[in-house]
## 1
Amino acid sequence: MKNKSLAALLYTFLVVSLLFLTTQNLLQAQGKAGEFPDPKIPGFSFPEPELNLDNWVFGSVSAEIYRHGWGIWTGITQQVSSNERVFETWQSPKEILAQTGMLKAQLKGVKHFLLLEKPRQFANLPKLMRTTKSTAVTPDTRIVVTVGYSPSAAQHTLTNKLLWASTIKKFLKDGYTDMPNFPIQSVTVKPVYKVITKDKLVKGVYPFTAWPGPPSTPQAFGEPDWNACVYVSLTNQGKGNGKIDYGCTGPTPETTYNLSDFINHKLTKEEADALKTNPNYPDVQAGDYIILVAMHVGTREMKRWAWQTFWWEANPDKPYEPSLQAIANVRPAQLKGAPRHYAMSVSYQMLQPAQPLTGGVNKGTPLFAYNPYLEAGFDPTVFQVFHPIDTPTGILKTEYGIQTNCTTCHMLAQFNPSSDYTQPGIRETPYAADFYLDLDDPLFKGMIKLDFAWSIIGSLDLTK
Ligand code: HEC
């Protein structure tokens, strides 16, 4: 009798521990909604100590920087459910603003969904909306974006009430030059999606604009200028083999890819209803798919942030610039499935060799890092600040989107007390292409720097 109950106890213990271990393993393998999940890549850690990152940047150890960027991508694209990856569970500044000042008990009832909007970066750029060249197939050049803050970035923004103008003004009054910095484990993302609405289908497949690489001479080069297409089969009939359709002549099996080649998401009713208010999407319906074509990712591991950007490539083994063969070569084995179909470009510095945080000079080779789907269309009218660079081949004035770098433009994220932010197009200024910018540049005098986060000023509530 005694033995029997002991055996039963032992058996229960075994079953329970087995169950526990299995769930643990599953959770680890799939990632959880929330903070950065460990992608289990040997040699990769997050957050990486700032000193190590600085050694790579100032010591020009590019391969380590590339490996780090891929580790971040592998981590945040882990699947948490059949319809969501880690980064898609993160709240947008709009959601954080709506919760600012709420009681703890009220916060529990908040439901998250993807708020897909026209890119704010394009707020004052009507010229970008040119019409596409007339081709056999008209690719869908529309995009929608959202911004996501990882839980620690969101918590920091919420508890410090950073999206209330009164908070920022108070800091300014008290003599601050910077808003409180984000914690080092903060990650922010800007995912860019194409919405597959039924009205855009051609012969049962969805045509959209494929990045054909940058033009040889600097110029504005937005989606309507690319003149190249790829096609997406919603029923996984594609046999895409790395080719894109130059000239948008029409779908072939080799230029048709499958939904499963993309990070994709099925729109919920809330998401579709919110998107319907956008005049570009009158036909959107719940259940329509959105595919991720690009994503900006920033981490606060370094004072000037670690920036990396990703876009879908038909042939990610041989990506177009601004990615590089050397970047594709160091993709980790743990990066599998749809997330492996993307190319990366990184910006952990503005010039090569890297200049110090303060007291540097505009001398060296510019390091361009941009996302084709976001910045490539910018022309010189977009930028307000220019600092010519003394390069090995002469003085260079950078003034196009394909000459930008995340770090320079994001350092300019600031609150200017003399700007009238009630006016349209004022928040997202001043803009700059790539050059060295000193953290103590005179242009920051009298401003509050927003720790490189443009979305703080973009979503700032002027009435609070
Ligand atoms: C010319 C200016 C400019 C450049 C260049 C630029 N960005 Fe941004 N970025 C913005 C603006 C403006 C926003 C705010 C968008 C919004 O609120 O919707 C933003 C938003 C973001 C966000 C959301 C969090 C935040 O900081 O507000 C991330 C992440 C981001 N950008 C990453 C990048 C990366 C990575 C690159 C380089 C590949 C880059 N950006 C290049 C202007 C720029």
## 2
Amino acid sequence: MKKGLVLILAAILILTFSWAAHAIHETIPAETQATLPGPDAVKLYEYIMKSNPYTDWQLFPGKGRMYEGKQPHGAFLTTYVNNDAYFSIRDKKGMADGCIIVKENYTSDKHLNSVTVMYKIKGYSPDTGDWFWAKYETVGKVVASGRVSACIMCHEVKKDNDYIFSGNIMK
Ligand code: HEC
């Protein structure tokens, strides 16, 4: 009888451990090894919303949440950077391939209006810093994407800073 109990307990333990090990293998790779999308606004949106949610990322170094912005982006802004972008900015070594900057644009009454993204894809557009530009209205409607001349024409004044306004990212 006692032996039976011990066996049952052992079986339960083994099952628990194997379940936990399985769960670890299931979740960690999904969070960290999601493949980066190509220059495709719909896939990029899926990536920043689902595969690697940008709201879990770091804020742009030196910026808080809901800082004041200028035209054309929004009265208030919150800007997130993925790990590659975070380390590139922090170490001032130039924006690496795979860097993503996601900026939420809020109206003056703090209503989320649009999301604008800069995504570095090596070889995508060598003349304009290899940035893929995208603008989404809430719920993911793509308003503009690709080598968007409207974005580039303005951000170009910051060409020496890899087209970035929000902080000095070069040495
Ligand atoms: C008329 C100028 C102008 C245009 C056009 C413009 N931007 Fe910006 N952008 C800025 C400024 C200025 C900032 C800094 C934040 C602020 O003060 O609004 C900025 C910041 C950003 C940032 C955060 C990284 C950074 O550079 O600081 C992203 C991402 C961004 N813009 C994406 C876009 C996209 C995508 C488009 C086109 C759909 C676009 N921008 C069009 C002026 C512009």
